[in-house]
Model the fold of this input.
Amino acid sequence: MKRRTAITIAATGLFALLAIAGPAIAANSSVKISEADERYSFSPRTTYVNVGESVTWTNDTDAPHNVTSDSGDELVSDNFGEDETFDHAFSVAGTFDYHCTIHGYMTGSVVVLAEGVTPPPTSTAPASSVPSEPSWPGIVVVALIGLAAGGLALRRFRAAD
Done:
């Protein structure tokens, strides 16, 4: 009986740790600046973070770009070149629309949610071509379910003896 209680407590602790650490690990977001069909773009066009979290823009093109707020001065970067980045931490909730002043057609948005609100997933893949890869939290959840099912099966197997 003591062993079963210890295993239950350990599994509960692991689950609680993942529930707490999961949002902290996924705290920051990234936006890639890329080129397709001779046009530059921010990808994803809309990204979500919580108050206090950061977004990192990475220039994956050979042209300079910048990140500039459509209104206000929340986002203001210098021009940054190939393989360079711009980071910004958001201190208030809201939607922050931005553009590249060099390429005015390049637009994007950062939606900053209140602390503790779970942001929706952000897809950077084109809608029709790339299958999604499993994320590590999903793999962990599947592994925990497998462990729980295995534990139940082992318990029934031992009870049958």
Q: What stands out?
A: The radius of gyration is 22 Å. Residues 28-130 form a domain with the Immunoglobulin-like fold (CATH 2.60.40.420).
